[in-house]
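Researcher: Please generate the 3D structure of the following complex. Treat every line as part of one assembly.
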Amino acid sequence: MAAITDNVLRGVDHIAIAIRDVDRSLEYFRDRLGLVVVHDETLQAPPVRLVFLDAGNVQIQLVQPLGPGRVAAFLDERGEGLHHVCFRVDRIETSIAALGLLPDGEIFMGARGQPSCFLDDGSSGTVVELTEMRPRALTT
Amino acid sequence: MAAITDNVLRGVDHIAIAIRDVDRSLEYFRDRLGLVVVHDETLQAPPVRLVFLDAGNVQIQLVQPLGPGRVAAFLDERGEGLHHVCFRVDRIETSIAALGLLPDGEIFMGARGQPSCFLDDGSSGTVVELTEMRPRALTT
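Model: Done. Output below.
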C-alpha cells in the first residue's frame, strides 16, 4: 500500500461508532471480537464518552452521547452504527485550506487533547473528522 | 499502538462506504480529499462495483450496488454513508468459530479473489465483515 506522505491526510486515526451505552457495546467489541480498550475519556464539549479499542493498524472509537449534540441526533435518527471516519493531519487550519473544504462547526479539543474538527460532508453522505496527533492549546 | 497478533482479527482491511454512483463520489474522496484509487473491480455476486482508495494505514472502499442486495437495501433505507468495517483474518471458517459468532450469509469471493463473509451484528448496530488476505478457491 503506497504511503500518502505527499498528501494532507496522514492516515486514518479512528473509525467512530455511535452507541447508546458503552459498557453494553463493549460486550461485543471487546469481549466478543477481542479488541483491547486503550483509552477511555469523557469530554465536556461535546458531551460524550469516548472509548478507543486497538484494531492493530487503526483504532475503533465508541462514542456515547452524554447530552444533546451531533451524536445524540444521529442516534435518534439512525440508531447505533458507524458514525464517522477520522483522518490525521498535521494542522487542522492549514489542512482544511489545502483541501478546499469547509469545517462543520468549530475546532474542538478531542480525546487526548487533540485538536479536532468535522468537515462539511460535501454531499458525500459520509461524516469526516480531522484530528491533530499532537495536543496544543486552541486559540480559537 | 499494540499489535493484536495473538487475536483472531489481523487489523482493518477496509472501511466501506455505500454510494449510489462511484464516479460522482470520487469527485469528493479522490479529487477533494486526495485519496488515490488503487483498485476498481465489479463483482457478479454480490452485484457491486468496488473502488478502493489508499488512506495509508487502511483502505476506503466505495461500494455501488449494481442490483438488488445488501447495499441497495441499505441505500434505500439510510442513504449514502458508512456501511461496514472489514477485518482481516487468516481463515474465515476457523475465525468465526474462534470468535463464537454467526455468519450473516454465505462466504463469498470478494474483491481481489479474497474469501469474505459478513457477521451477524450481535445487536451492535455495526455491520462487520471478515476477509482473508490470500485468494483461495471456495469449496462451499
